[in-house]
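Ticket 4471: requesting a sanity check on a complex prediction with pyridoxal-5'-phosphate. Repro inputs:
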Amino acid sequence: MKTWQDKEEFKRLFTEKAYRLWEKELQELTLNEVYQTIAYMIRDLVSEDWIRTNQSYAAKKVKQVYYFSIEFLMGRLLESNLLNVDMDNICRDGLKDLGWDLEDVIPAERDPGLGNGGLGRLAACFIDSLAALSLPGHGNSIRYQYGLFNQRIVDNQQVELPDNWLSKGYPWEVKKVDKAVYVRFGGNAYMRPTGDGHLECVHEQFSTVKAVPYDVPIIGCHNDTVNTLRLWRAEYSREEVYKELSMGDRHRAFRYKDSVQQISRFLYPDDSTEDGRRLRLMQEYFFVSAGVQSIVRHYKQKYGESIYRFAQYVAIHINDTHPALVIPELMRIFMDEEGLSWQSAWEITVRTVAYTNHTILPEALEKWSIPMFKDLLPRIYLIIEEINNRWLQEVRRRYPGDENKARDVAILWDGQIHMAHLSVLGSHSVNGVAEIHSQILKDSTLHQFYTCFPQRFSNKTNGISHRRWLIEANPKLASLIDDTIGDKWRKTPARLSELMAYKDDASFKEQLAKVKTERKEWLARYIKDKYNQDIRTDSIFDIQIKRIHLYKRQTLNILHILHLYFLLKDNPSMKITPRTYLFGGKAAASYGEAKETIRLINVVSHMINSDRTVNQQLKVLFLENYNVSLGQMLFPAADVSEQISTAGKEASGTGNMKFMMNGAITLGTMDGANVEIHRLIGDDNCVIFGLRADEVMNYYVRGGYSSWKMYSSDPEIRRLMDALVDGTVGGDYFGLLYESFLEKNDEYFVLKDFKAYCEAQKEIAKRYGNKSDWLRASVVNIAQSGYFSSDRTIEQYANDIWHLKPSKHD
Ligand SMILES: *Cc1c(COP(=O)(O)O)cnc(C)c1O
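Returned structure tokens:
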């Protein structure tokens, strides 16, 4: 790895680079230009390693994994890359001499929002870990011109603004024009007999989209590995436009250009609604086909091995079902282009592909209408139809007369293509993302498949990059840990457990408290600057940051806050432990209840914060535009981590792990990875409440829960429900939420869990009152959080699923 020898060399290189890039004097540079200059300098440092990493993988013919995900929520890269190349101090010192503060330069990088939330952030943590572990693994996705919208709050409501993150250029990407591939859409496809008694596919009158890769280096931490995140951009093909024009059809030519440019224009803003479905399907096939084509081409050119050995050298992982078309696309290439038989093509495909399921919410399982699919992807449809026919034949042979079985495992059913079913059938490995989630997949969601292929199923509990979420986000905590147990935990995060020896060490706990207070003060200053609100740093910082969704139950949190407000108003002399409740998160633009939840939080916030009879003890704030960089400020400042989803609904959660690693105490349900957090640290070090997943399931199956009964029998709940519609809350009306709680019988058991949540909040306040015990719990959380490093997760994927070994170049 090349480095800058000292700050003098940094300053010299910076000056040269800046002159060349911007053609102006250093004093005139904007902060964004300073950031970009350093980014290009880092690229210079790693470019040789980037080339050599790829050369060496090919020369040694090592097996490589390609992680396909429709989202990569990378966050800013300047600081993480400076840390990875170990040049943060030299850069900071050099910049200081030149008159800049690195801490001012870092925020000048736009945070690319190429993802909605947890799923996209997981993909980013995974490729970070792959590179850190010197594993040959790369990301594959779409270069959206606009990321997830920027969120503003205007009149208490969410407003969505376009995220034009590329407007000033993106110095980390390298456009690779020569590596473009072509993706086919539309036309007719049919089978016709060849002379020798076989069938071949004819696909005609399709239109072609050019896929151009933009590569981003994924730099390993303190090693020489530089892997690649390949992002595809759709361009129109000139030949195609000329063809239309030459046939005299200007309108068709125009429509074609326009529809192509749509493909990589926007990140689909929501993973659970109906809008823009055709375009979304185009996006999915676009990045899948481009990615698979380029992998096969690279394999043939650089490995020179027989196509029959493909799965020995290539693993393709699909992050949820959005890239599931990898399966029929591999079949298409193997059969139509490589001339393999169905049987051989299928065997290789299944051995290549592995699938991670991310959701059990039935409304979020991906399905495509057959007519739309056929029209857009006729060749791929024929293949899926054949996969389905052969599969159902086998099922009916294995389970004669059992049509329920056939229905439960069919890929085509009811006019729809079931992508989860295609994914399970076309993969050799299916995993859930936390123990409870993997169990639910086997017991219910994919039970019928589990009985067919029990050996395919496994669990891989999610993780987070401890480099980003501890070392980068909380450097003072990281160096306190270094001072206490040495720095080996940085490479081996499981060694954080050595902190257990310090859970009763008064001096360590004191210093930990000091770090936490500093971060609370920093956040308080940000809130003062941006929102002109004063918050008490001696109050409990109770934080819920995640996408806004009914199942995540921000409503439970805000109803409890309203309940505290009523208590304080009814008993003016009452004293409670001062609390600051912070919320952050985006609602899908089309999700009415989620947007109403944001409005409710903001209206309650104004009502409470402006009421001098309560605002010394209670503050509530909704922080705009939650994203990776805001998260890096919030997780380290938290005392309490709100993880209160309806049990059985959150596949894993990863926010819970980020809080834990930063010493916050979890207030949560037995859901997702909370179950494993609880097992690692015990009841003394987190507060668990509410219905369990099996109890929730029982209510769904057998009935027996009536939210109206709760309304009539519990005066506190009645008062809260009435407040939603009678103007008590800022004179405002919250009809959708009222309806969801009462008319729709509270599908997410908010009212049912309300009492238990209130008790849990009391328990938190009680524990916070005992400083020493609270700090002990905080130490235990940090000490046990090493398990949740994505390095552990990726090692499990590499060993159990991908069969991948670390590989370093010379
Ligand atoms: C970690 C993270 C998430 C996922 O949070 P959950 O609480 O697990 O839903 C979502 N968005 C961002 C920006 C994140 O960093």
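Notes from triage: The first helix runs from residue 7 to 22. Leaving this open until the requester confirms.
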